[in-house]
Design brief:
Layout (H helix, E strand, L loop, with lengths): L1 H26 L4 H46 L6 H29 L1
């Protein structure tokens, strides 16, 4: 739950920064042509940085999912015999993780459009 709040806070901070920068450009004492150039330049910069952050986030989530899958496979196929309850708990934890990842995927898909 804390991670969800942190992500929402981070997105709100970025969004507020973008809106604030846009307003600053619009209210600056420049000609319309200069202001439009500044807005285009800022939009390209923000878009580039946003793409980078999204790709890094996606890579991190993918790496996390791979690591969890490898660890789970290792535990389930190891020589150590796990109690049936432990196996059930492990499978339940993996399923909860999958549900959370799917919710984040859907949320990101809504943000992208």
């Amino acid at each position: 739950m804390a991670q969800k709040d942190t992500m929402a806070d981070a997105l709100m901070l970025v969004g507020g920064g973008i809106v604030g920068a846009g307003l600053a450009l619009l209210l600056a004492p420049k000609t319309g042509k200069d202001t439009r150039k500044d807005i285009v330049r800022m939009a390209r910069t923000v878009g580039s940085k946003t793409d980078k952050v999204v790709h890094e986030f996606a890579d991190n989530v993918s790496e996390l999912a791979d690591t969890i899958g490898e660890k789970a496979s290792s535990i389930l196929s190891s020589e150590v015999d796990l109690a049936p309850e432990s196996k059930k708990e492990l499978l339940a934890a993996i399923e909860r993780g999958q549900v959370k990842l799917e919710k984040q995927r859907q949320r990101l898909a809504r943000l992208i459009g």
